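User: Hi! I'm working on a homework problem where we have to compare a predicted structure to a textbook description. Could you give me the structure for the chain below?
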Amino acid sequence: MHYPLPDLLLEPIVRAGLLEDLGRAGDITTDAIVPPDAIAAAALRSRQDGVVAGLDMVRLSFKLIDPTVTVAMLARDGDRVAPGDTVARIEGSARGVLTGERVGLNLLSHLSGIATATASIAQAIAGSKAKLCCTRKTTPGMRALQKYAVRVGGGSNHRFGLDDAVLIKDNHIAIAGSVGAAIDRVRSNVGHLVKVEVEVDTLAQLAEALATGGVDAALLDNMSCDTLREAVNMINGRAIAEASGGITPETAPGIAATGVDLISVGWLTHSVRAMDFGLDFDA
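Assistant: Happy to help. Predicted structure tokens:
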């Protein structure tokens, strides 16, 4: 289940994109060519198969340029569409439509790409107990949107920042001196409601982490399926087992079959391919 993000969160991102695009002089091409009173109607269509995410960004892009431009949604975030499907119709000031088009489409394409990629893995592991989640590898300023798109695609979210959960990684362990020392330092400094996860590369590190009794989750990094099965058996329900590292729709089913609780995938947000949409003006 996903819920739409409030406009209060979305508007600053869309506004920043529009300000970047308008620069110091506005849309000099459209303003020179299109009369101020010209009216246009257009259809926003998908150019490929995929899962839609980010339609509110389109609505806000036009609203911030010209509030009189109307956007009629014919699809909802989370819908699967095919090439040629119309997801929205836009009507109003031709200048407003042309000027607001690109920012809205860029955000829609990016977020729909994330949702589509997420859905491909979520479907691949359907039937297993494993859940798909994203990571903190997001574009600065876009985290809320990108994590929303993951939810739209059927995934779930890992921590949102450095302040809402503890994740002890290899460099933390190197500085602390050992897995156990890092966990002990964390537990003596964070509140009782803060979850603690530790990244481990070997079963020996996992055993050390479990021996402390202070971890809520173990991030099993770049382990083979055989090693993951051993790790899950070692954990035996004492912590959440999370697999990570180089996971694709092809490898995800085998990883899910090892019994892990979570599969985390960084490329869903940091290097996914945008989904193609186009705005077609009525003749």
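For your comparison, note the following. The chain has eleven helices and twelve strands. Residues 91 and 243 are 47 Å apart (CA to CA). Good luck with the assignment!
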